[in-house]
């Protein structure tokens, strides 16, 4: 009956778990001293003797640490970036030591709002502190420290993962040799904040959300979270991609039914996306992580002068965008690249022609793969990695 | 950007071979310096300088395809154009700002030239010479815009919008108080022609001109 009991009955997720912040707590942007907390993470490949071959892959909003697993422990599908990460792949796990951690506030093993608040013995719910992208990265630095790694060869990620990449370069430039922020921006746009707000309101409007206490009440705001996912999913695709895939095709029927049933394939598809999402994601985590993205603006503390965020940064950057991505546009990437230029950084900036929208970074895009591969190989030469 | 020069390689002491006119540019660049190659195309020069002269090189290229090919070779290149995107670079960020076969395709060549010498301590500029006898012949006797192996594209399709002669260019440098550190004229295949590049001969017989400028 109770979801807490369900959570506890479920076998622990595979992979590594590290408890951090026991003595030195994690100082959050909100001012809260947080800890101890757990980060769940996966590693692939071997760390070399001088610890110079580590690549941190940062996952997106609804991604997780199982970047290159054969079988995801919950969905049963392949890891989300198997196209890119693995033996002989672009991020070659025969050559590099790849680390991917579930963000703090997440729901796949790292401490988040569904976990038990030790002070109350109940799930955190909305008592969980608000986290930011910088907090996620600060937590990651503690993990990287604990793994004994000083400098990461590369930090790579798309979308929210790209925000973490940029935060790493801004806050710990000396610890990042190469950085690939992909399909991302230095700040969340008003349009993106707006879509996130729609998603959060959908969750909160679900009576089963129970003011955030659904775990205590033994409920799950599945309908609200599904609607949030459906809306978000549309923003990850492009108009042409959606039309090419579904057009106005009907779902298992010869004619429209004059009802509100899912007549159209696109409706059926979105319902499926929403439904399968709620099986693997916690609604409060969704609120917290979308909020973290909304708050992200690297230029804020420099009064909008973004270049100053990267003054003296020696990291080599490869900024990649996709032509049909309307969440994180090429224009935003170019603004970022111009700021990096103005800060005398070593920067490449490439727009990949694709009609697959924001999700293109997760899909089979040969030009994207060619660029990322060239960048990583060039950086490996620069770093003296064989 | 448009390349008006045919793809001929020269015999060089390096194992690497690049187009002859690019080799002449490369020879002007001191090793270990910072270089911005504007209109770097597929990165032929930039890659060569990086490999053989250990320069800290960056590129700016208009075509997406060019940018992609450069980055895929590990060269740091961004998409952009000489007219719009030089303003972002800080003063003196580079030892050399190179503009090869591109000046004539810019909207505001004078501003671009002054930008080159703001962000680079030296500018290396090459361009097709409109004063070449064939161009003069075409205009004078055929009454048509020049079309030759060096300028192969018809007037209505060419991206080249600001043609000049060697003499015009020298005049502009004088007007802008730019110092001509080195100059040479090249023949059709991009090889150096030994003649005084300020002379009327050069302006008549040179297919292309190559200048190194400073302030």
Automatic annotation (TrEMBL), chain A:
Its EC number is 2.3.1.31. Gene3D superfamilies: 1.10.1740.110, alpha/beta hydrolase. It catalyses: L-homoserine + acetyl-CoA = O-acetyl-L-homoserine + CoA. One of its GO terms (molecular function) is homoserine O-acetyltransferase activity. One of its GO terms (biological process) is methionine biosynthetic process. Pfam families: Abhydrolase_1 (PF00561). Homodimer. Transfers an acetyl group from acetyl-CoA to L-homoserine, forming acetyl-L-homoserine. Belongs to the AB hydrolase superfamily. MetX family. PANTHER family: HOMOSERINE O-ACETYLTRANSFERASE. This is Homoserine O-acetyltransferase. It comes from Thalassospira profundimaris.
From TrEMBL, chain B:
Gene3D superfamilies: Vaccinia Virus protein VP39. InterPro entries: Methionine_synth_MetW, SAM-dependent_MTases_sf. NCBIfam families: metW. This is Methionine biosynthesis protein MetW.
């Amino acid at each position: 009956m109770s979801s807490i009991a369900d959570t506890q009955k479920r076998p622990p997720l595979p992979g590594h778990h590290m408890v951090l912040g026991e003595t030195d707590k994690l100082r959050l942007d909100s001012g809260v001293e947080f800890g101890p907390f757990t980060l769940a993470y996966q590693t692939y490949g071997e760390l070399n003797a001088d610890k110079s071959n580590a690549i941190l892959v940062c996952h997106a909003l609804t991604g997780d640490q199982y970047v290159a697993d054969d079988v995801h422990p919950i969905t049963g599908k392949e890891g989300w970036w198997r196209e890119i990460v693995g033996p002989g792949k672009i991020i070659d796990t025969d050559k590099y030591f790849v680390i991917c951690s579930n963000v703090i506030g997440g729901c796949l093993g790292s401490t988040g709002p569904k976990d038990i608040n030790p002070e109350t013995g109940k799930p955190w719910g909305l008592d969980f502190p608000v986290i930011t992208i910088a907090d996620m990265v600060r937590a990651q630095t503690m993990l990287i420290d604990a793994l004994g790694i000083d400098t990461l060869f590369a930090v790579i990620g798309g979308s929210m993962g790209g925000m973490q990449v940029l935060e790493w370069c801004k806050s710990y430039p000396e610890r990042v040799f190469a950085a690939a922020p992909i399909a991302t921006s230095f700040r969340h746009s008003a349009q993106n904040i707006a879509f996130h707000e729609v998603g959060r309101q959908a969750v909160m409007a679900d009576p089963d959300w129970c003011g955030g206490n659904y775990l205590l009440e033994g409920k799950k705001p599945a309908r609200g979270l599904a609607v949030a996912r459906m809306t978000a999913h549309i923003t990850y695709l492009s108009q042409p991609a959606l039309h090419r895939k579904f057009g106005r095709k009907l779902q298992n029927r010869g004619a429209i039914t004059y009802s509100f049933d899912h007549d159209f394939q696109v409706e059926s598809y979105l319902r499926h996306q929403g439904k399968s999402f709620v099986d693997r994601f916690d609604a409060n985590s969704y609120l917290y992580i979308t909020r973290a993205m909304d708050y992200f603006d690297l230029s804020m503390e420099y009064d909008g002068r973004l270049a100053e965020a990267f003054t003296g940064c020696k990291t080599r950057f490869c900024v990649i965008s996709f032509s049909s991505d309307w969440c994180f546009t090429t224009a935003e990437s170019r603004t970022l690249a111009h700021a990096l230029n103005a800060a005398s950084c070593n920067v490449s900036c490439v727009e990949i022609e694709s009609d697959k929208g924001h999700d293109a970074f997760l899909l089979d895009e040969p030009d994207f793969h060619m660029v990322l591969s060239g960048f990583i190989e060039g950086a490996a030469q620069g770093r003296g990695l064989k | 950007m448009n390349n008006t020069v045919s793809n001929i390689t020269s015999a060089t002491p390096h194992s690497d071979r690049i187009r002859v006119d690019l080799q002449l540019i490369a020879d002007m660049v001191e090793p270990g310096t910072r270089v911005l190659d504007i209109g770097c195309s597929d990165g032929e020069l930039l890659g060569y300088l990086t490999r053989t002269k250990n320069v800290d090189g960056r590129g700016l290229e208009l075509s997406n395809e060019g940018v992609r090919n450069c980055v895929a070779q590990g060269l740091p290149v961004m998409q952009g154009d000489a007219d719009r995107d030089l303003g972002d670079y800080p003063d003196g960020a580079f030892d050399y700002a190179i503009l090869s076969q591109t000046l004539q395709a810019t909207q505001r060549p004078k501003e671009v030239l002054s930008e080159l010498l703001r962000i680079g301590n030296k500018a290396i500029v090459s361009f097709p010479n409109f004063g070449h006898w064939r161009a003069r012949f075409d205009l004078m006797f055929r009454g048509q815009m020049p079309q030759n192996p060096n300028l192969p594209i018809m007037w209505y399709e060419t991206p080249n919008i600001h043609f000049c002669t060697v003499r015009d260019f020298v005049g502009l440098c004088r007007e802008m108080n730019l110092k001509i550190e080195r100059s040479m004229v090249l023949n059709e295949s991009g090889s150096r022609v030994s003649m005084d590049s300020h002379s009327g001969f050069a302006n008549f017989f040179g297919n292309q001109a190559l200048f190194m400028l400073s302030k």
